[in-house]
Amino acid sequence: MFFRKGKVGLEYYFERGKECLDRGDYRWALESFNKAIEFNPNFEMAYYMRAEVYKKLGKDREAVWDCIRFLEADRRTPGTAQDLKEALREGINVARMESQRNKMKAEILSFGVPILLEELIDGYDPEEEYKDTRFYGIALSWLEGNSPRNWCHIGFVQLLRKNLDDAIKGFDEAIKENPEDSNAHYFMGITLSKKIKLIKKKGFILGGLEKAEELSKEAISSFHQALKRGKWRICVECGWRTASAMNYCMRCGKILLSR
Q: What are the tens digits of pLDDT across the range 106-157?
């Protein structure tokens, strides 16, 4: 057994994890930080260090989510448990230095936001509910502070947040900057389709029928533009897309658009 009896606790597991990470023993480093988090789920530095282990193991998704957990823990006031007060006093103090904290945040965001957004884009399901609102807020704030801005990512985050008009603006900017961006065209079609559904729910009042028909044409046009530039087949009924050679939508059974 790697861990010795009589020396268990937050400090022991955290320090052991750092030692294992430094010498490249990632399996035991991961186990150590897992144990540290079991002792105190609010101890932010354990998430930060575990994310480093996940990066070394090539587990980008797990690393990103630990980065997000670090940011969430960063907003919480530490507990008053005696073991937390006594454990890792020096490490905690360093972590709470503003300059160090800002550096950590910058590293986390620049690593985590693009990776996770690309993963969400690749696996996007129009019928799924995306509820990680905390991450979307963090991602949008970071994206809007960057120069140049990634407008497709901004539009996508706004789509996940159900801010459809802002999403359309983002995708419109993305298409202006890069007309060959297949994702921007596809998600523009998705966003327009969702607007059509909202209009239909309102019962086509105050010119809604004409507006829905106009948006429907724009959505189909956007899907066709995506098809010209991408590798998918797309269902105009529900927005589902696939890279396979199938002809019918797995969601609603409609015929898929193809090149």
A: 777 787 788 889 888 988 999 898 888 878 888 899 999 988 999 999 999 9
DSSP classification of residue 241: E
Exposure pattern of 165-196 as b/e (b: 16+ CB <10 Å)?
ebbbbbbebbbeeeeebbbbbbbbbbbbbbbb
Q: CA-CA distance, 142 to 138, in Å (whole number)? A: 6
DSSP result, 18-69: HHHHHTT-HHHHHHHHHHHHHH-TT-HHHHHHHHHHHHHTT-HHHHHHHHHH
Q: Half-sphere exposure of 192 toward its Cβ, with a 13 Å CA cutoff?
A: 24
Q: Tell me the C-alpha distance between 118 and 140, whole Å.
A: 14
pLDDT digit string, tens, across residues 18-75: 999 999 999 999 999 999 999 988 888 899 899 899 989 988 778 878 877 887 665 4
Token digits for 95?
Answer: 């972590």
Q: pTM of this prediction?
A: 0.73
Furthest CA-CA distance within the chain: 74
Give me 55's structure tokens.
């990066």
On whether the CB atoms of residues 81 and 40 are closer than 8 A, the answer is yes
- What domains can be seen in the chain, in order of their start residue? 10-117 (1.25.40.10), 123-222 (1.25.40)
Phi, psi of 114 (to 5 degrees): -60, -40
pLDDT score of 83 more than 50 = no
